[in-house]
Write a structure and sequence with these properties.
By secondary structure, the chain is α/β, with parallel strands linked by helices. The protein has helices at residues 35-45, 60-66, 70-78, 82-87, 108-113, 116-119, 140-152, 214-221, 232-241, 263-276, 281-291, and strands spanning 4-8, 29-30, 33-34, 50-55, 96-101, 124-127, 131-135, 156-162, 172-176, 184-192, 203-211, 246-250, 255-259. The chain is globular.
Amino acid sequence: MITKAVIPAAGLGTRLLPITKSQPKEMLPLGSKPCIQYIVEELGRAATQDILFVTGQKKRAIEDHFDTDVELNRMLKMGNYGDLLDEIDFEALGQTFFYTRQRYPAGLGDAISYGRDFTANEPFYVALGDSVIYEERPAALLERMTEVFRERECSFVIAVEEVEPEDVRKYGIVSIGPAEGDDIHPITDLVEKPPVGMAPSNLAIAARYIFDSSIYDALQSTLPDSRGEIQLTNAIRILLKQGKCGYAVRMTNGQRRYDIGNMESYYKAFLDFALRDERYGYSLRQYINRNLGKEATWR
């Protein structure tokens, strides 16, 4: 099993202003839970025991959320709110949380490099703090990735999803070789946000990775880009040039990535999660159906 994970959560969230001025984007709600809680629960179901959050300025709310609030727990017990207590009983996941701060915004690759002492020589997951994977069986994607990592004895595994050709400029895109199993391909190259028409494929990196410890030396050898950031894709390319092997695992039809990096994608994600809510989803669907076509209601 892979027992450690790194969650980069240091981004400024500028595309979500003004709601992220004092609130971390990772803490924005999707339905009844903050985004990052879904990610922690996903990692917990994948048997992850230790999680390192790499945060930045104005991210203290993440630490507060996963702390045990003795007084709140006492009040919920006294009020017979056991169902609510279960929703915030993070100790039941059997995980230990650790925190470190990225000193200044220097890219995703730099944020991951803060995990070097934490993961040591063990393989580890990376789950981006602003991207939730919805799937019918929780953690199924991580389980498939772990199986590939173990059986192929490779240096890294990356989850990928198909995107529209006109959207490749928004993502890191992988170039792949022939399939070596159901939805499993060796990775031959990666390109960060290529122009439309110049992408090697329409397979976008889907915010979930497995790495062995070789990624840290590659990150240390990666030069900053024009914005002074260390790009993770460039570090992975160094691994490929060194002869390391890595695989892409395609997301299946029953899996979907929700990226809350901008307002439009956040609105869509919140709506989908709210509509799935066991308690309020039905009434919310009824409300929307009643008001479809009534433009004045939405203005």
